[in-house]
Give the backbone structure.
Amino acid sequence: MAYIDISGVSKSFVTSGSRREVLANVTLSIERGEFVSIVGAMGSGKSTLLNIVAGLSAPDEGTVTVSGELTRDIRRDAALVFQNYSLLPWFSALENVRLAVNAAFPNQSRDEQLARARRSLEMVGLTNAEHRRPGQLSGGMRQRVAIARAFAIEPEILFLDEPFGALDALTRETLQQELAQLCCDGRRVTTLMITNSVEEALLLSDRIVPMTHGPRATLGSPIAVDLPRPRTKALLTHDQRARRVRATVVAALTSGSGRRLGSRRRPVAPLTVPLSLAEAKGEP
Amino acid sequence: MPQALLPGFGVGLALLLWWWASVAVPDLPSPVRTWQESKIYILEPFEKRGEMDQGIGLLAYYSLVRVAQGFLLGIAVATPLGFLLGVSKTMTRMFDPVMQILRPISPLAWLPLGLILFQKSEPAALFAIAVCSMWPTVINTMAGVRAIPQDYWNVAKVLRLSRTTTFIKIVVPATLPYIFTGYRLSLGIAWLVIVASEMLTGTPGVGGFLWQEYNSLVYAHILLAILTIGIVGFVLDRLMGMAEARLRTI
């Protein structure tokens, strides 16, 4: 049995009287220490799925288990990073991290908790900004605080909901590289990331799972990203394997648009590799 | 004309209007007569000559103490009530009709009830102030709790914060600006109520003074009292506004 098992998960929302099925029969297994990305367009129901897997909301049908244990609530050993940072504006960067540390390690002394929070901020290079409030930090720095807060509790599992979606391109690249180091060097944290960027998924993941467009979104077959780490932009651009994986992912995402993906393998896309998902889709 | 002079110009116009009215209505003292007849109260603001015959500073002080007591009593009840109604939908449904009915009741209506309940004018006045001034705080606190973004609730959930920690670290700071807006409005109402309750109970204070001078036909002193009420109310509002600005958390 896999470490995280998502099995037959469905979810619908009732909006103004009409029932909208967002997720239909989603199944996925994640091994311990693996970095898995779910890639799909905006509004495809990715965040709904992540919230269910993380335990923030309950599925209508199906189950999520971690080490065979049913997930009903947020797990003690899991951390989440949201696209919109979710920092408390009235606390400094340090206080935001400490809030998480104090809740996760209630039995440690104040000094130990403080030291742990400081270490975590140091890890993301924010020691000099620890007393600044989120309002006085740039978007990239805010997301660094959120990442520091997530790693401060030494999570076994990390859930990332479009963590860099709100950042400019340059900051995004820097933070992606930093996250790759945090997640994949040394002790490996099992990570499930939601993203709409194929490049981001290629850079960070062990496996990429395409998600069809909702309603009734479901997952396609996982695509293994068999590339050495650390991965650079150059590697992703020029390596043949990288190009093949990218093409497979894009093909899986585009061919199924509007229809449900079957479980059978999609044909590999033609050699002209689209640069981005938007470009690949062309005009509707 | 420089912008800074405009308020002075406005005050001048108002005085002119007052003077014109005093010419039209002979019983109404002109600005100059008002000053001449009441300067003893202003120039010796803390002189005590008799029960009601006191400097205007002293009278305002009595009223302010009463307002402070009634206001503190009111918000001590209103703030927790606001939090409770903000968090619990059941509580809101239960108390909403009661609140909507109690809210528009005038202080003049509460005062006799207070007199029956407490038998004395002082606690009756406090009761009227508290009951009338608490509603803006209740409603603003409630609205503040409801306006907390889902993001912050998610933080509490994701970090597995206890109920107490969530309340202290998230709910209170997120609601604080709303609460202070409530306090500011409540204080304004408390100051309105004090005058009415002093007039009815005849206790020493700006309102009591006003009513007594009306009965003794010293109309200049009525105008003095009215101006004092206005100026003190204005200063109170400004002070609360400053506190509000300092305590901005978001």
About this structure: The beta strands of chain A are 4-15, 18-30, 35-39, 61-66, 69-70, 78-81, 157-161, 190-195, 207-210, 223-224. The first strand of chain A starts at residue 4 and ends at 15.
